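Quick one: NAD(+) diphosphatase from Cellvibrio japonicus, structure tokens please.
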Amino acid sequence: MEPIALASFEFSLSKNLPGKSLARNYFVVSDVRGKVDQLLCDTDGTLCILTSAGLECLKAQVQHPASHEQYLGHNSQQTFWVVAMPASTLRGNYQWLGLRAQLGQVDATLFSLAGRALQICQWYFDHAYCGRCGQPTKTDQVDSARVCLACQLRFYPRISPCMIVLVVRDQELLLAHHVRASRPVYTTLAGFVEAGERVEDTVHREVYEEVGVRLGQLEYITSQSWPFPGQLMLGFIAEYASGDIQIDGEEILDANWFRYDQLPQVPPKATVAGQLIDLYVQRCLVKQLPGKK
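--- reply ---
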């Protein structure tokens, strides 16, 4: 039962499929009483995407049907789906691993689709019943929503917008060590967008709350889906304006200015934080070239 091979991965979320029969391929996620946070991998940690035949073979091995089949997307050759299985049923040469184990190990687009698999399946479990009237819901086959059969209230997959910002001052980067960090990593600042707030306002507010400095010009750089569990990271580089670093002591354990060529341990480039840091380091390096200012 071999997972499918994906040499050059791409996919579309459109439900308007090409006018031909496409092969179906499956992500398999673990179901622990409605909590979905792990993916089927082989024993060396490789993410498994199964063909229809491979899925049937797995179901026969574990003697349990896969459930909650949900559409994820397609490319020109195949469609992608997610199914859930009870975590305790897994046997053979497979294991359950969290999505973080794939960070930097797979193509960024495949990482996004694997994250979508977890998010879509969790959304299905979380909204099987209406939060307003308690009646069952069904999946809308046209719109990406769960719809209450009684009151017609619609539930969409959770997406939480979150800004992430690298604050810079000439050749220096402001980096922080967060309370939740499991390793001694210094990284950028981040925070959730509040209701009624522009993301630009979030950048200014969160930076001042966490490290006490004021910002000048903001430059939007890029975004990244960050399904832990459902953030959309909006990445900025911000110019320092004024103020001394004063950490909040709640979310931030330490923060400091670091020269671009004397950085502490930082996040990998597979993360948007790592990309922002790398981009600014490259800009600083270019300025050091003869004839550059």
